[in-house]
């Protein structure tokens, strides 16, 4: 099922950054992938979904094959993902035994992977050129998104997120990363609180929800890189009414 042609898998990114990720998927260098549902996701999103009687829609920009999506589906809610590498998308469906079909979207020049028996849609697209209008989005879970892209493209990426956000409704949970290591500069890139304020301060309210020391887990996933200290800083961001 998995298309191994690099030429076909490579989508154009405005700074060439996506090629880097396609190479990583092809070489199976996906240390960013967690084999469990993220703790912060379990703490801050799942309880909201469990207690909701309405079906909620959760968007995962730069989704990879994260099991956080599977956790949402298991609760009967809706998942929308955006991922530039088909290998990651197909791995998500195949590894979780979710049957799917693929639709072409000629206008948007992307393919749309849709679950047949469950409510998951993953767009095979470069997030920077993604312009599909989405249904009303309740939550955006950005773990490994903003911190993964080239820092020079952050404002463009921020604008992609803002387009998906309904004022006063969509809750963007942004997992920022902080570390101080002279031998390593990313990805993941450091996104500090000032960066978050600079990006979202004029259009959104934001609140630092939790900070977690992630050093041990990071070291166990990225064994080759013995980083001194790394923490995840979870921000809740809500777009203001204009
Ligand atoms: C650090 S990984 C995080 C994946 C996932 N969010 C997780 O928590 O496991 C970043 C992902 O973004 C994808 N990606 C990078 N640049 C992209 C772009 N411009 N458009 C779409 N996807 C992109 C990569 O292929 C990769 O799967």
From TrEMBL:
UniProt entry tagged with the keyword Disulfide bond: no
Gene Ontology terms: cellular component: cytoplasm
Pfam families listed in its UniProt record: TPMT
One record GO biological process: methylation
Entry protein name: thiopurine S-methyltransferase
Family as reported in the entry's similarity comment: Belongs to the class I-like SAM-binding methyltransferase superfamily. TPMT family.
E.C. number: 2.1.1.67
Gene source species: Rotaria sordida
Molecular function via GO: thiopurine S-methyltransferase activity
Subcellular location(s) of the protein: Cytoplasm
Reaction it catalyzes: S-adenosyl-L-methionine + a thiopurine = S-adenosyl-L-homocysteine + a thiopurine S-methylether
Lineage: Eukaryota, Metazoa, Spiralia, Gnathifera, Rotifera
InterPro entries: SAM-dependent_MTases_sf (IPR029063), Thiopurine_S-MeTrfase (IPR025835), TPMT (IPR008854)
Keywords assigned by UniProt, alphabetized: Cytoplasm, Methyltransferase, S-adenosyl-L-methionine, Transferase
